[in-house]
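User: Please fill in residues for this 220-position structure.
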């Protein structure tokens, strides 16, 4: 997808959605509501009982649908939790992409601050989801989904840097280093110190980390 400036941005949906092993996809509003209820029920059961104890029967009961209805869309509990992971990573990519598009071509520090603010906000809003998925990530295709979302985020960050720091060389490599550093810090905050996600000073520290690194590399 391209923005008004012609810069290319990744679309988060197609690559991630392919990872869900659904028997059929909802095509009507009523079916979408049913699938949303099932996915939300999966989150509630996962948070309450954990992945090992999660069953399709418990999810159907929590979602207020029959087991037969659940099986129309999801063949097993792995596909249910994979749908949650796709939802989580899709929200992360969508928030960062949307924020980056809003400030394309803006001064570098402003673009970085705006995009990081959106990232911290979506992390706060999906904290329960992140915590619930921490265990199943290692048992399911979490690594594959993480690679897909990271690849898309890398494309977004690289496009933003090209527009806001046109003299920066080796953009893809430096976008990758920057993304790894920021994601490492933010992930630690999510799982160990979630209150940091709401702290203005933490946002400014991330901005300083990003701008300091890029400034030091701008002429190399």
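Assistant: Residues filled in for all 220 positions:
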């Amino acid at each position: 997808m391209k923005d008004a400036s012609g810069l290319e941005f990744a679309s988060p949906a197609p690559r991630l959605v392919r990872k869900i092993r659904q028997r059929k996809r909802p095509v009507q509003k009523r079916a979408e509501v049913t699938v949303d209820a099932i996915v939300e029920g999966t989150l509630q059961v996962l948070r309450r009982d954990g992945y090992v104890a999660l069953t399709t029967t418990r999810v159907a009961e929590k979602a207020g649908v029959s087991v037969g209805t659940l099986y129309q869309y999801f063949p097993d509990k792995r596909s249910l939790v994979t749908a949650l992971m796709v939802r989580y990573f899709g929200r992360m990519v969508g928030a960062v992409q949307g924020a980056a598009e809003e400030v394309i071509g803006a001064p570098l520090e402003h673009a970085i601050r705006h995009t990081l603010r959106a990232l911290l906000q979506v992390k706060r809003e999906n904290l329960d989801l992140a915590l619930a998925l921490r265990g199943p990530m290692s048992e399911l295709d979490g690594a594959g989904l993480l690679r897909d979302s990271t690849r898309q985020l890398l494309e977004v960050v690289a496009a933003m840097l090209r527009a806001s720091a046109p003299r920066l060389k080796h953009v893809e490599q430096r976008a990758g280093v920057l993304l790894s550093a920021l994601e490492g810090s933010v992930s630690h905050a999510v799982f160990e110190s979630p209150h940091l996600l709401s702290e203005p000073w933490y946002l400014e520290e991330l901005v300083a980390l990003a701008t300091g690194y890029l400034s030091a590399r701008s002429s190399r």
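For context: The two ends are 30 Å apart (CA to CA).
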